[in-house]
Amino acid sequence: MAESIITARDLTKEYNGKLRALDRVTVEVARGEWLAIMGPSGSGKTTLLEILGCLSRPSAGIYRFGGTPLGDFGEADLARLRGRDIGFIFQAFNLLPRLSLAENVQLPLVYQRVPRPERRARALEALARVSLEHRARHRPSHVSGGERQRAAIARALVTRPTLLLGDEPTGNLDSDTGREILELLAGIHREGATVVVVTHDASIAERAGRKLRIRDGRIEDDSGGGG
Question: What average pLDDT does range 148-166 have in this prediction?
């Protein structure tokens, strides 16, 4: 059995002590797995992804990353973990408009204080990985939506993360461009990455090795996918 990268037990998330976004969710993710998290709007999908990505803390429950319990981690510890081990892909791309694609991709390395020459080299390497090195000097407004999302994926990959998380990575794209991003994610997964994606896109869910369905903050179904 593959080693687990994520072990979460009875995760609960409450807001203002009343609204329960997650209700005792238990999930385990193996290294190299591709998991699609699905469910209706407001079901708790994004809340779960934020906890798994150490962007939010659970109100109750236990979360272990790579076998390490994170309950006693301070904010600085969590920030270092995110910067070192977790890459994020967002629906809205979250690229800074005044920076070139290469400069956007370098940003996570700036926060890690990686020297400038190495930052540049790794950014170009990440852009080449998503077939975008020829757009390195372009600003986000000068490229297509699909190219902006590919740049966002390159930014997520530039730190060489252990875990890649996506929140509706094809949600703002047309169907043809969405298929391109799907193939890119599939290639990254084949290279050995662990991928966890929140999605409404049935094509992503079918390609994932496993589907987790959430409703009203609880797991409704946990089943295999198309591999």
Answer: 93
Give the homologous superfamily in CATH for domain 4-224.
P-loop containing nucleotide triphosphate hydrolases (3.40.50.300)
Dist. CA 1–CA 127, nearest whole Å: 34
Q: Which residues, in sequence order, are bridge partners of residue 194?
A: 163
Q: Quick one: what percent of the chain has pLDDT higher than 70? A: 97
Give the sign of the dihedral formed by CA 11, CA 13, CA 18, CA 19.
Answer: negative
Give the tens place of pLDDT for each residue, 94-132: 899 999 999 999 999 988 889 999 999 999 999 999 999
Between CA 122 and CA 154 the distance in angstroms is: 10
- Ordered by start, the domain boundaries in the chain are 4-224
Outline where the chain has alpha helix (H): 45-52, 75-85, 101-111, 116-129, 145-157, 175-190, 202-207
